Amino acid sequence: MSEFDYDLFVIGAGSGGVRASRVAAAHGAKVAVAEEYRIGGTCVIRGCVPKKLLVYGSHFADELHDAARYGWTVDQPRFDWPTLRDTVLRDVERIEAAYTSTLDNNRVEHFHERAVIAGPNTVRLASGRELTARYILVAVGAWPVMPAFEGSDLCITSNEVFHLPALPKRVVIQGAGYIAMEFAGIFNALGCHVTVVNRSDVILRSYDEAMRDRLLQITMARGIEYRFNSPIRKVARQDDGSLLVHAGDHEPIPADTVLIATGRRPKTDGLGLENAGIALGANGQIPVDEYSKTSCDSIYAVGDVTDRVQLTPIAIREGHAVADGLFGGNRRTIAYDSIPSAVFSQPPIAAVGLTEAEARDQYGEVRIFTSDFRPMKNIFAERHERGLYKLVVDAGTDRVLGVHMIGPDSPEILQAAAIAVRAGLTKADFDDTVALHPSMAEELVLMR
Ligand SMILES: Cc1cc2nc3c(=O)[nH]c(=O)nc-3n(C[C@H](O)[C@H](O)[C@H](O)COP(=O)(O)OP(=O)(O)OC[C@H]3O[C@@H](n4cnc5c(N)ncnc54)[C@H](O)[C@@H]3O)c2cc1C
Ligand SMILES: NC(=O)c1ccc[n+]([C@@H]2O[C@H](COP(=O)([O-])OP(=O)(O)OC[C@H]3O[C@@H](n4cnc5c(N)ncnc54)[C@H](O)[C@@H]3O)[C@@H](O)[C@H]2O)c1
């Protein structure tokens, strides 16, 4: 009989927690997971999945607009927000059920309540029950940051945006990161007036400057307005129920919905980490080593709560590696270089590896290849938006250090290019690859 109730107790059934639970259980461990909200976590319930479905839903606006050029008559198309919203929410329920079945099929016990750390090997559930485990994995994710200003309680975050009772006519979005640019695109395509207010004059700071500039140009042409260097000072309710947003020195901006998208902070408040002697980092994150182990030998942490890279595939990889290391005899680290990423803006940006500026800093001499092209489908539809692809190449070794793209379907194309960058392929390897014609992707091997 083991001295502990479980081999592994996981706190948080999101991307990292569910993967770690099921892999540990498959290795033969006795596993339990506690979830305070819904199984699936941010990505499934109020992140990647419903967001991407809204991107798909809003994209029909472009397709319907362009359809006439392709010979289709679509009489008076109308959009109904509650239909899209509710269908998306039902799909989220379907995926939540699939995640729950995965836990059940792997004999992972789940508790639908909050859990906190009571000691190095003990968790306390909201019901007061205490359970022990040889190892504890903290996978509690992150939570939207709400800057302090008068009227912030009148604003929403990405947690609420999927549940809006009606489509707002005017949306103000604070921030210019992933969530801001993705929802700016969704609301703009659905016909809302969108104003992005940002504290600096840079959007999507981590992406290549040329891609950011192109997105800015295209989205402004599509009607999205920007107010830079203008953090929100105050939001006030008007007599007619609408909102007035005071940002920077600009004229107040009228709005029906104000979405705050200013980053996500590790969800460690009140988690009891001090009971295991674990000190938090400056952003509330749990510091871990390369095996995701905290300063307490029996406690590990993965995903957004560690504030390394806030992306689902990273949380999943970290969770998988912890389970393999503890119960599968395969202790390993994971690679954080060459992580592909995308912003599902309209058009989307996708990238892997170093930006031009980063490569110049790190390598000195680099060669840059670009393709600035109008996709065939845009030309035919008389849509003037241009795609832009860029290869960043180390002049010394000819190795491709970065691939950057903005244009239709760029995330779909980038995944394959990321394999090439990860494998350390050279520009000559790209040149040697025969183009797949006609496609946008062929631009990747035609840059000279
Ligand atoms: C709007 C939005 C869009 C996104 N889009 C993308 C995208 O397109 N691609 C991408 O890769 N990433 C995207 N992300 C990021 C991605 O969702 C996260 O990086 C990922 O979900 C992190 O996984 P995790 O396991 O660390 O945490 P989470 O998935 O957040 O899971 C943590 C879980 O722990 C639970 N929990 C917290 N505290 C406790 C406690 N004390 N007791 C019990 N349970 C607890 C929470 O309820 C939650 O279910 C998006 C995020 C948002 C907000
Ligand atoms: N497609 C994707 O992969 C995807 C999509 C959505 C979210 N995510 C993940 O979720 C995380 C959170 O997304 P996000 O968009 O909230 O964060 P973000 O870090 O991408 O962007 C935050 C934005 O808010 C601004 N900001 C920060 N603090 C501010 C303040 N006090 N006042 C005014 N502006 C402020 C920043 O300048 C920045 O523009 C992302 O970092 C990303 O890792 C990924």
Question: Which helices and strands occur, and which strands form pairs?
Answer:
Elements: E1 6-11, H1 15-26, E2 31-34, H2 41-46, H3 48-67, H4 81-105, E3 109-111, E4 115-119, E5 122-125, E6 130-138, E7 142-144, H5 158-161, E8 170-174, H6 178-189, E9 193-197, H7 209-221, E10 225-227, E11 232-237, E12 243-247, E13 253-255, E14 257-260, E15 264-266, E16 299-301, H8 312-327, E17 341-343, E18 349-353, H9 356-363, E19 366-373, H10 376-380, E20 387-394, E21 400-406, H11 410-422, H12 427-432, H13 443-446
Parallel strand pairs: 1-2, 1-6, 2-3, 6-16, 8-9, 8-14, 9-10
Antiparallel strand pairs: 4-5, 5-6, 7-15, 11-12, 12-13, 17-18, 18-21, 19-20, 20-21
Helix pairs in contact: 1-8, 3-4, 3-6
- Provide a count of the helices: 13
Q: What Rg, in angstroms, do the CA atoms define?
A: 24 Å
Low-confidence stretches: none
What ligands does this structure carry? flavin-adenine dinucleotide, nicotinamide-adenine-dinucleotide
Q: Tell me the domain tally.
A: 3
**Structural class, from secondary structure content?**
alpha/beta
The CATH superfamily of the largest domain appears as: FAD/NAD(P)-binding domain
User: Could you give the distance between the termini?
Assistant: 67 Å
Number of strands: 21
Strand content: 15-25%
